[in-house]
Amino acid sequence: MRKKNARWIRHTHVFRADDYECTACGYLADMPYSVCPNCGRPMNGTKYDPSWVDEMEAADAIFDD
Q1: Which three-class secondary structure state does DSSP give residue 3?
Q2: Cβ(1)–Cβ(40) under 8 Å?
Q3: pLDDT tens-digit profile of 20-58?
Q4: Domain boundaries, the chain
Q5: Which of 1, 19, 21, 64 is 20 to 30 A off residue 27, Cα-Cα?
């Protein structure tokens, strides 16, 4: 039986390195592997999630900018 492909969701952050989330199982990795180390699904590209925007908004609120 062939496993369905999944994608990495790239979470970009302001003060730390990017992380990648598997759309099939939610595993967080430090880089986009060709196969998810957790569920073994083949990956079919990457989606972008601009998480850094929310982090920057929170920092602006703290510093009242």
Answers
A1: coil
A2: no
A3: 999 999 999 999 999 999 999 999 988 877 666 776 777
A4: 6-62
A5: 1
Buried b (16+ CB within 10 A) or exposed e, 47-65: eeeebeeeeeeeeeeeeee
* CA distance linking residue 17 with residue 50, whole number of Å: 13
* Residues facing residue 46 across a β-bridge: 8
48/19 Cα distance (integer angstroms)? 11
Look at the pTM and tell me if it is higher than 0.85. Answer: no
